[in-house]
Amino acid sequence: MALVDVNVFHDHVSQIADDPQKDVSSGEWNHHHRVDEGAITYAMLSAAAQAGAVRTTAQYTSATLANLAVETGTITMTKGYRLSYIQTSRAARVRVYVTSSQRTSDATRTTGVFPSGNHGVVLDFVTTGSMLEADLCPPADGYCASSSIPISITNLGTSGTVVLTLTYTPTEV
After folding, report:
1. Element spanning 83, H or E
2. Which of 49, 64, 92, 144 has the fewest other C-beta atoms within 10 Å?
3. DSSP codes, 128-148
4. Could you tell me if residue 46 is left (phi over 0), alpha (psi between -120 and 50 degrees) or otherwise beta?
5. CATH fold of 47-172, please?
6. pLDDT at residue number 52
7. CB distance 133 to 88 below 8 Å
8. Per-residue pLDDT tens digits for 97-119
């Protein structure tokens, strides 16, 4: 029984260690897993998570954005986190990154295109007018050198502010 590293992206999972060509179905893209005969065990559990850390929320409000306008910034969370829920006040594309330089390098990637290289994308999620909130299942594990987590928000509707709320469980303080 071997452990297999996999990357999860939209409805696509590429098994890296055993068979890089083999694809299996999955949920939304979010993070790196270790799989043991189909059971997902997370490789990024820290002492904080194992000690029973409590879910909390972080919020970011953009400036007034025109349709398809993009704002970059940071949202304050813990250095290590597990995202479990996302909510926006209007249709938007939300991207969460490991570093601001990776966010800058990924700025021109369009929706539905897989990131490549050392991309640092923790989450790339699109909400719509009929689905402004969603459970992230499986959850997205992320980390940053500080508690200022780089994000990018694209307004996908009429002009206005986008209020982003992320529910997360701290995995590192």
Report:
1. strand 80-88
2. 64
3. BTTB-EEEEEEEEEEE-SSSE
4. beta
5. Jelly Rolls (2.60.120)
6. 62
7. yes
8. 999 999 999 999 999 999 999 99
Ordered by start, the domain boundaries in the chain are 3-41, 47-172
* Contact (Cβ atoms closer than 8 angstroms) between residue 25 and residue 18: no
Q: Considering Cα of 139, then 141, then 146, then 148, what sign does the dihedral take?
A: negative
Question: Each residue of 50-73: b (16+ CB within 10 Å) or e?
Answer: eeebeeeebebebeebeeeeebeb
pLDDT digits (tens, 9 = 90+) for 127-148: 999 999 999 999 999 999 999 9
Q: What is the pTM of this model?
A: 0.72
Closest CA to 74 of 60, 93, 56: 60
Give the residue, 88 or 50, on which the prediction is more confident.
Answer: 88
Measured CA to CA, the distance from residue 14 to residue 17 in angstroms comes to 9
